[in-house]
Amino acid sequence: MGLAHYVGLGQNTAIPDPNFEQALINLGYDSAPIDGFVPTVNIASITDLNVSGSNISDLTGIKDFTALTNLRCEHNVLTNLDISGNILISELYCSNNLLSSLDVSMLQNLKIFWCSYNQLSALDVSQNLGLISLICGYNLLTDLNVEPLVDLRVLDFGFNDIASIDLSKNINLIRLDCRRNNLTNLDFSNAPKLSTLLCDDNQLTVLNTSNNNQLNNLSCGFNLLVNLDLSNNLALTTLNCSNNLLCTLNLKNGNNTNMVVDFGFNISLVCVIIDNILATHDSWTPSNYAGFVSSVEDCNNAIPVDTFSDVVSIRSYTLPSLTIGNYFTGSGGTGTLLNAGAIITTSQTIYIYNELPCGGNESQFNILIIDDELYIPSFFTPNNDGSHDHWTVTDNADQVFNILIYDRYGKFIKYLYPNDLGWNGTYNGYALPTSDYWYVINLKSGQILKGHFTLKR
Fold it and tell me: Three-state secondary structure along 119-170?
């Protein structure tokens, strides 16, 4: 009967939740004892209300706070929040409750909206065009439309179940937190002011930060990233890209000395491009990484592979054991796979190919099978390509005493001992031109062999 009397006179507002009323008493808007009402005149002009952490389950009566612009009701046990009568609200903080739905479409002045740690499965902010900060993480969201929110500076929807989001219109974003969702793509290229990006625990395979020159803090661990180029992010100081599938990581941004970096648990990482490979990186994880290089080009040869020199052998050659890579008869792991111990009886090129998840690298060497114990090559090409770079006589029977080399006019050029590497095509440090050159081979038997060969450049 009393309830009907007060409501009818319009002098009091019903506050059925005693914890809500106690909070109002504590704030001086009501007086003890708790009676289920508060004088409406006491609350009608209130602009800021903070009833956080008060174990409130029901905010019935909030509609009579008609001047309210700032409502804080975090850390309660609210299952419902009806603010349809509080259309002046510009800041709403209702995180850490039990809300499964929330309608904010009528709040045209809303600028700050924090509703994380609830049970929201849907959230419509398309009418809140003035939003500058939206924090809705730790809910049950599968979709979020923020495209109309061109003034948005802070967006946090981490720990939901969102698979895609359009950020193309959010040009003023400064902070983006989308951790632990199901994102396979994330395009924030139209947000040049972005300084903090937290996107860990998604399914991202590509991350392009080339347009984000103000990016300062990047955390993108536990994704599927294969390559990450941060060379344009000159302001970057904090990076966590651990637990990905990285093959290459480009950190050469001129700011390495000010950076704290974690790129651990990227088991396929073959190279990290940095400012100075001689510098120490005690604040980095791992700090003792062996694959630091100074240029993108250096990454091309970062995958290790065994290398062998060309071979000249009588009648056959047995492939030796390998430490890194496998033998193939074709380039790039093609042709026939050969095992160590295989006997080669025909002259050919053998490839050693090492394939990792990030790609492959190979070396090659030539096997020349001859019938005689003494092999004198008819040409060589000293161009430092690893093949035929020296003119070398192969002496499989230890017959040679010494070798003399002359140019076509009879000028003495080079003296070789049997175990020398060979002649590299130079005289007194100068490269000699393409031409025919003559040899005199003195054998231990006293026999002398003479002939000529071609130097090709």
Answer: CCCCCCCCCCCCCCEEECCCCCCCCCCCCCCCCCCEEECCCCCCCCCCCCCC
CA end-to-end span of the chain: 111
The DSSP letter of residue 434 is S
Asked if omega into 33 is within 30° of 0 (cis), the reply is yes
CA distance 403 to 374: 13
The answer to whether 434 and 380 have CB atoms below 8 angstroms apart is no
Choose among 427, 390, 391: nearest CA to 411. Answer: 427
Question: Distance (Å, rounded) from C-alpha 21 to C-alpha 54?
Answer: 10
Instruction: Find tokens 């060969």 and name the residue.
Output: 453
Strands 426-427 and 430-431, how do they pair? antiparallel
Cβ neighbourhood burial of 227 (10 Å; 0-12, 13-18, 19+): middle
Q: Is 51 helix (H, G, I), strand (E, B) or coil?
A: coil
- Asked whether 87 and 105 are in contact (CB, 8 A), the reply is no
Helix (H) or strand (E) holding 197: strand 196-198
Q: Kindly report the pTM of this predicted structure.
A: 0.73
Element (H, E) at 302: none
pLDDT tens digit at each of 457 positions of the chain: 333 333 334 599 999 999 999 999 999 999 999 999 999 999 999 999 999 999 999 999 999 999 999 999 999 999 999 999 999 999 999 999 999 999 999 999 999 999 999 999 999 999 999 999 999 999 999 999 999 999 999 999 999 999 999 999 999 999 999 999 999 999 999 999 999 999 999 999 999 999 999 999 999 999 999 999 999 999 999 999 999 999 999 999 999 999 999 999 998 898 999 999 999 888 899 988 988 999 988 886 777 889 998 888 888 899 999 999 999 999 999 999 999 999 999 989 999 999 877 778 899 999 988 777 888 899 999 988 878 899 999 888 888 999 999 999 999 999 999 888 899 999 999 999 999 999 999 989 888 888 899 999 9
Q: What is the largest CA-CA distance in the chain?
A: 135
Beta strands 271-273 and 248-250: pairing type?
A: parallel
